C-alpha cells in the first residue's frame, strides 16, 4: 500500500489528474489527523507526506493510476480504522498531554 | 566497615527511596523483599496519561492495515478453512492460503514450506524437539548458544533428559558467535544447530549466512529463531541456507497468538509432529488454522516487506539520536552487544552506579524493560548479559530501549531527557558514585559485614 504523487513540480501531468492527486493528498491528511491514537496518527500523517514526496517525479500515466488506486485504498483503510479507534478510545499519552498541539 | 549513614544512603540510592535506620543484615533482607514489591502492577487511572511505549521487543502494536485485513474474517468470513464442502470453508481457505504466500514471499520461501503455529515458542519447540526426535536413531547431538530464547534452552533441557547431548556454545563479549568454536563442536552425530538471528535482549545480529554455509557443508540442519528479525532485515532462506525458521506474529505488528515455522522441502527436513490430529499443515501441526490470525500474520508480512527500507532508515536515525543524546550528557554508559552487527531498534544500555529496577521505576512515564519479558519475574540479571561477560553490577543496571515503526522523535527526545535527569538524580544519591568521583577504585575495596 503506498501513496500517490505531490504535483507541484510536475509540469506535464494532465490538469485533471493533478487535481485528483491534490485532492487525494488533502483527504488522506485530513482523515489521518482524526486517529485518536497518538502513534497511529503521527505515523499516518508522516507516511502519507513521505509517500507522496517519494513519488514526486512520477509522470507515466499508467504508474500514476496504480499509485492513485493504492492511495484510494489507503484512504478507505484509514477511515475505517479511525472509526474503530474512536469507538475504543483511551487516555492520551504523556507527550500529548504536555502542551496544546495540533497533532 | 561502612557506617550506618553510608549503608542507608547506599540502599536508599539502590531502591530510589530513603530507608529507615536498620542494621546492614536487616536492610539486606527487607531490601530483597522490597525489590520484589517495587514495581507494583496497577491499572492506569481515568485521567492519568498513558506512558510512551518503548518496548518493541516485548511486543508491538498492530498496524492498522493488519487489523483492517483481519476484521472481515472475524465478522463475516468465519468458516473453518478445512471445510471442503461450502463457500464458508472455501473463502476462509483462500484467505489462509493468501496469507501463507505473503509470509513465504517475505523470506523468499515456497508457500508449501510455511506451517502456521501459535507463535515462535511453539515453532521453536516443534523445530528442535521434532528434528531431534526424528533423527535420534543415528544423531544424538544438538548445538545451540547460551544467548538463545528461553523456549529454545528449555526445549534443549528437556531433550537432555531424554538422552541427547547438547552443546551450549558461549558467545564473545560482543554477543556474536565464534564460528571457529562452532566448527569445532560439530560432530558426525550432530543433527541440528540452533542460533537466533537477532537477539531480543541486546539486538545483536548473528552471521547466519556463514553459519548456514558451514552447516550445509557438514550436513547439519540449521534452525534459526528469526522472531525479531523477520520483516526488519532482508531474509532469504535459500541464500542463507537455513532449514528451519521460526516467525512470530506479534513482533512484526501482527496479532498475538500466531506464528509460523518454515520447514525446508528441498533438501527435505523431516520433523516428528508434536501436535497430532486431523493432519492439517502437512501433518506437522494438526488443528484448525485460526484464519483471522493467519490473515493478520500474512498482512503484517506484506506490510513489513513494503515498509522495510523506510522503517529501517527511520529506526536507525531514531536509535542514533537516542544513544547520542544520552551518551553526550552522562558518562559511564555502556552499549551491550556489538555496535555494528546489530539491529538498531534494540538498544540495551548499562548505566554504571545506578540500579536498573530503580531507574525503571523512576522512568514510570516510559514503558521500558530491563532484560526480556520472560525473565523479568526473577531478580537475577539476564542470562544473556551474563553470557556476554557483563560485570555483575553492570548487568543489574541495564535497560532495554525498543524503537519501532510508530516511534516519534518527540518520544525519543522525551525518553532521553527523562533518562538523563533520573540517572543524574540517582547517581547523586549513590555513595558509590561519590566514591568514584573522589577517585576511589571500587574494585579494590574490601567490603565487610557489621
Automatic annotation (TrEMBL), chain A:
<dbReference type="Pfam" id="PF05347">
    <property type="entry name" value="Complex1_LYR"/>
</dbReference>
<protein>
    <recommendedName>
        <fullName>Complex 1 LYR protein domain-containing protein</fullName>
    </recommendedName>
</protein>
<dbReference type="InterPro" id="IPR045297">
    <property type="entry name" value="Complex1_LYR_LYRM4"/>
</dbReference>
<dbReference type="InterPro" id="IPR008011">
    <property type="entry name" value="Complex1_LYR_dom"/>
</dbReference>
<dbReference type="InterPro" id="IPR051522">
    <property type="entry name" value="ISC_assembly_LYR"/>
</dbReference>
<feature type="domain" description="Complex 1 LYR protein">
    <location>
        <begin position="19"/>
        <end position="76"/>
    </location>
</feature>
<comment type="similarity">
    <text>Belongs to the complex I LYR family.</text>
</comment>
UniProtKB/TrEMBL annotation, chain B:
<dbReference type="GO" id="GO:0006777">
    <property type="term" value="P:Mo-molybdopterin cofactor biosynthetic process"/>
</dbReference>
<comment type="subunit">
    <text>Homodimer. Component of the mitochondrial core iron-sulfur cluster (ISC) complex composed of NFS1, LYRM4, NDUFAB1, ISCU, FXN, and FDX2; this complex is a heterohexamer containing two copies of each monomer. Component of cyteine desulfurase complex composed of NFS1, LYRM4 and NDUFAB1; this complex contributes to the activation of cysteine desulfurase activity and NFS1 stabilization. Interacts (homodimer form) with ISCU (D-state); each monomer interacts with the C-terminal regions of each NFS1 monomer. Interacts with HSPA9. Interacts (via homodimer form) with FDX2.</text>
</comment>
<dbReference type="InterPro" id="IPR020578">
    <property type="entry name" value="Aminotrans_V_PyrdxlP_BS"/>
</dbReference>
<dbReference type="GO" id="GO:0031071">
    <property type="term" value="F:cysteine desulfurase activity"/>
</dbReference>
<dbReference type="InterPro" id="IPR010240">
    <property type="entry name" value="Cys_deSase_IscS"/>
</dbReference>
<dbReference type="InterPro" id="IPR015421">
    <property type="entry name" value="PyrdxlP-dep_Trfase_major"/>
</dbReference>
<comment type="similarity">
    <text>Belongs to the class-V pyridoxal-phosphate-dependent aminotransferase family. NifS/IscS subfamily.</text>
</comment>
<dbReference type="GO" id="GO:0099128">
    <property type="term" value="C:mitochondrial [2Fe-2S] assembly complex"/>
</dbReference>
<feature type="domain" description="Aminotransferase class V">
    <location>
        <begin position="53"/>
        <end position="414"/>
    </location>
</feature>
<keyword id="KW-0411">Iron-sulfur</keyword>
<keyword id="KW-0663">Pyridoxal phosphate</keyword>
<keyword id="KW-0479">Metal-binding</keyword>
<protein>
    <recommendedName>
        <fullName>Cysteine desulfurase</fullName>
        <ecNumber>2.8.1.7</ecNumber>
    </recommendedName>
</protein>
<keyword id="KW-0501">Molybdenum cofactor biosynthesis</keyword>
<keyword id="KW-0408">Iron</keyword>
<dbReference type="GO" id="GO:0046872">
    <property type="term" value="F:metal ion binding"/>
</dbReference>
<dbReference type="InterPro" id="IPR015422">
    <property type="entry name" value="PyrdxlP-dep_Trfase_small"/>
</dbReference>
<dbReference type="GO" id="GO:0051536">
    <property type="term" value="F:iron-sulfur cluster binding"/>
</dbReference>
<dbReference type="GO" id="GO:0044572">
    <property type="term" value="P:[4Fe-4S] cluster assembly"/>
</dbReference>
<dbReference type="InterPro" id="IPR015424">
    <property type="entry name" value="PyrdxlP-dep_Trfase"/>
</dbReference>
<dbReference type="Pfam" id="PF00266">
    <property type="entry name" value="Aminotran_5"/>
</dbReference>
<dbReference type="InterPro" id="IPR000192">
    <property type="entry name" value="Aminotrans_V_dom"/>
</dbReference>
Amino acid at each position: 500500500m503506498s501513496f500517490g504523487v505531490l504535483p507541484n513540480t510536475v509540469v506535464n501531468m494532465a490538469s485533471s489528474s493533478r487535481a485528483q492527486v491534490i485532492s487525494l493528498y488533502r483527504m488522506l491528511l485530513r482523515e489521518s489527523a482524526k486517529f485518536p491514537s497518538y502513534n497511529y496518527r503521527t505515523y499516518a500523517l508522516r507516511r502519507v507526506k513521505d509517500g507522496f514526496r517519494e513519488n514526486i517525479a512520477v509522470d507515466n500515466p499508467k504508474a500514476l493510476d496504480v499509485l492513485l488506486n493504492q492511495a484510494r485504498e489507503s484512504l478507505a483503510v484509514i477511515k475505517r480504522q479511525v472509526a474503530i479507534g474512536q469507538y475504543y478510545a483511551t487516555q492520551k499519552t504523556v507527550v500529548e498531554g504536555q502542551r496544546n498541539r495540533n497533532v | 566497615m561502612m557506617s550506618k549513614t553510608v549503608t542507608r544512603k547506599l540502599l536508599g540510592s539502590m531502591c530510589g527511596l530513603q530507608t529507615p535506620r536498620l542494621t546492614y543484615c536487616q536492610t539486606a533482607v527487607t531490601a530483597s523483599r522490597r525489590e520484589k514489591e517495587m514495581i507494583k502492577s496497577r491499572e492506569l487511572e481515568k485521567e492519568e496519561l498513558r506512558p510512551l511505549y518503548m518496548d518493541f521487543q516485548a511486543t508491538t502494536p498492530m498496524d492498522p492495515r493488519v487489523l483492517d485485513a483481519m476484521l472481515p474474517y472475524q465478522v463475516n468470513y468465519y468458516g473453518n478453512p478445512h471445510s471442503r464442502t461450502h463457500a464458508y470453508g472455501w473463502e476462509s481457505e483462500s484467505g489462509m492460503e493468501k496469507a501463507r504466500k505473503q509470509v513465504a514471499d517475505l523470506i523468499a520461501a515456497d508457500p508449501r514450506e510455511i506451517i502456521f503455529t501459535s507463535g515462535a515458542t511453539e515453532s521453536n519447540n516443534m523445530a528442535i524437539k521434532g528434528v531431534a526426535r526424528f533423527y535420534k536413531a543415528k544423531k544424538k547431538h544438538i548445538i545451540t548458544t547460551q544467548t538463545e530464547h528461553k523456549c529454545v534452552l528449555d526445549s534443549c533441557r528437556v531433550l537432555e533428559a531424554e538422552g541427547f547431548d547438547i552443546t551450549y556454545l558461549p558467545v564473545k563479549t560482543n554477543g556474536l558467535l565464534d564460528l571457529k568454536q562452532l566448527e569445532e563442536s560439530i560432530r558426525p552425530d550432530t543433527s541440528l544447530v540452533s542460533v537466533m538471528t537477532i537477539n531480543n535482549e541486546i539486538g545483536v545480529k548473528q552471521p547466519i549466512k556463514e553459519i548456514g554455509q558451514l552447516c550445509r557443508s557438514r550436513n547439519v540442519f540449521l534452525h534459526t529463531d528469526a522472531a525479531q528479525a523477520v520483516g526488519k532485515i532482508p531474509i532469504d532462506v535459500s541464500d542463507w541456507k537455513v532449514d528451519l525458521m521460526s516467525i512470530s506474529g506479534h513482533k512484526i505488528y501482527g496479532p498475538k497468538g500466531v506464528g509460523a515455522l518454515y520447514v525446508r522441502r528441498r533438501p527435505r527436513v523431516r520433523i516428528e509432529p508434536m501436535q497430532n490430529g486431523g493432519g492439517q499443515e502437512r501433518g506437522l501441526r494438526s488443528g484448525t488454522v485460526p484464519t483471522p490470525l493467519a490473515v493478520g500474520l500474512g498482512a503484517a508480512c506484506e506490510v513489513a516487506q513494503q515498509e522495510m527500507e523506510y522503517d529501517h532508515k527511520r529506526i536507525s536515525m531514531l536509535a542514533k539520536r537516542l544513544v547520542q543524546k544520552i551518551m553526550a550528557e552522562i558518562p559511564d554508559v555502556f552499549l551491550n552487544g556489538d555496535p555494528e552487527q546489530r539491529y538498531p531498534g534494540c538498544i540495551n544500555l548499562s548505566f554504571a552506579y545506578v540500579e536498573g529496577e530503580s531507574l525503571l521505576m523512576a522512568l514510570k512515564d516510559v514503558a521500558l524493560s530491563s532484560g526480556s519479558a520472560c525473565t523479568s519475574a526473577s531478580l537475577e540479571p539476564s542470562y544473556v548479559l551474563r553470557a556476554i561477560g557483563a560485570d555483575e553490577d553492570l548487568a543489574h543496571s541495564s535497560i532495554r530501549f525498543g524503537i519501532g515503526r510508530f516511534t516519534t522523535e518527540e518520544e525519543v527526545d522525551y525518553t532521553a531527557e527523562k533518562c538523563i535527569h533520573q540517572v543524574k538524580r540517582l547517581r547523586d544519591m549513590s555513595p558509590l558514585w561519590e566514591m568514584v568521583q573522589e577517585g576511589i577504585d571500587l574494585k579494590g575495596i574490601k567490603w565487610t559485614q557489621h
